[in-house]
Amino acid sequence: MSEVKPLIGLKWEPKLPCLALESKTGSTSSKVAESGSLWSSKSELVDGLCLPPTDPKKVTKMMRKQIKDTTGSDWFDMPAPTMTPELKRDLQLLKLRHVIDPKQHYKRVVSSSKLGEKYFQVGTVIEPAQEFFQRLTKKNRSTTLADDLVADPNASQYRKVTSIVLFRKCLLYKDA
């Protein structure tokens, strides 16, 4: 009847959810729990700690996952940026820049090269001191290329003219 209660602070046990890996009936559900669970079995744990695998194939696979995705030392280990919708839109605009400004001719980009699509950097333009009075105000600055094209009056005028021309061509083909 006399229970020995440990003093507070002298004994600590982690409160983990109880996993029933072995059932009393010996059903197949225990096998499923062992293979599909996130917890390691007690035989794989050493002093309650998870150890790295001893299989060399598993070790090299884990090491490959830990290496950052970069272009290599020839390109100064430039990392691959995380693709956001804004970055995707800006890359599409750069691919279609010959359509946006028809008077400016650009060299064709080789589409077979996937490096240009995966590895790139986005920077900011620093204006020289001579352009202090001609610079854009904070109100007129845009964060993406798409915002810049929408705000550009020359590009919007070109879009209006081309849309009218295409609309008239469609009407002519419908009537014929």
UniProtKB/TrEMBL annotation:
Major location category of this protein: nucleus
Keyword Nucleus in annotation: yes
All copies of domain Fcf2 pre-rRNA processing C-terminal, residue ranges: 68-160
Nucleus among keywords: yes
Pfam family, one: Fcf2
Keyword entries, A-Z: Nucleus
Listed GO CC annotations: nucleolus
Protein name: Fcf2 pre-rRNA processing C-terminal domain-containing protein
